[in-house]
Amino acid sequence: MAKLFSLASWNVEHFKGEPQRVDRVVAFLKEQNPDVLGLYEVEGKVVFSQMVENFPGYQFHITEGPQTQEILVGVRNGLTAFFTQRVEFKSGNPSLRPGALLTLHFGNDNYSLLFLHTKSSGTPVGLGLRDDMFDRAFKLKKTLDKVAGGKGKANFMFMGDLNTMGMTYPFDKSIDADIELRKLENEASKVKMRRLGKNSKTWWNGPKSSYPKSDLDQVVASE
Q: Of 47, 111, 152, 208, which has the most beta carbons under 10 Å away?
């Protein structure tokens, strides 16, 4: 099957309007030249205006709410696309980020892309919130399948900084990140989706951080 579109998904981490950093981000994205781009942890209106200025060939959408970090989605001009903000992915917590759902239309087919930034926490509450958000994504897949004509029919993927870090708990009851990922993969298979492989772990917290590298960024797509 020929490639229909290209996609870039990137948590830039506390992405504000600092000019030099914006220039680096813009340069990298232009090098990738994606048809669709999703940026996470966008803070402030300045970044939105700077991206619009630097990418005149794109239409941009951004989530809104009481949360301090937003998801910015850009779509190349000429693509037929529909954007919706999905507040159910806050899982009842107003401080969390909503989902950003972009649907592309090619011929008679729709391709739904859900950009997510789930709860970052190794506590039981954090794991529970992520689990709930993933469950909502799989329920959305089932809904899209019905619209598309049956199980496994919908073209759907969700991606982003999914923060699959497991859970820390005393008395040898901790849950490793690998276990959380295995559960994610198992639930995905039930709705005919799978977690895509990567060349390497895609998270780097800087040379001075005490946190180890972690496999936090994921893409889960229809089979």
A: 47
- Residue 197 domain boundaries: 118-223
Neighbours of 116 (CB within 10 A): 28
Strand ranges, E, within 16-108: 36-42, 58-62, 70-76, 80-86, 99-106
Whether 207 is covered by a domain: the verdict is: yes
CA distances from 183 to 7, 67, 103 (A): 26, 28, 27
Summarize pLDDT for 27-80 with one digit per residue, the tens. Answer: 999 999 999 999 999 987 788 888 999 999 999 999 998 888 999 999 999 999
Model confidence pLDDT, tens digit, residues 194-208: 999 987 655 555 566
Q: What is the mean pLDDT of the chain?
A: 92
Looking at the structure of the chain, the number of domains it has is 1
pLDDT of residue 206: 58
Residues 142-149: contacts with CB under 8 Å, at least 24 apart? 142/191, 144/112, 145/191, 148/110
CA distance 195 to 164: 12
Interatomic CA distance for residues 157 and 221, integer angstroms: 4
Distance, CA of 1 to CA of 20 (rounded, Å):
40
- Residue 52 domain flag: no
Say if 150 falls within a structural domain.
Answer: yes
Determine, yes or no, domain membership for 147: yes
> Is this model's pTM higher than 0.70 or not?
yes
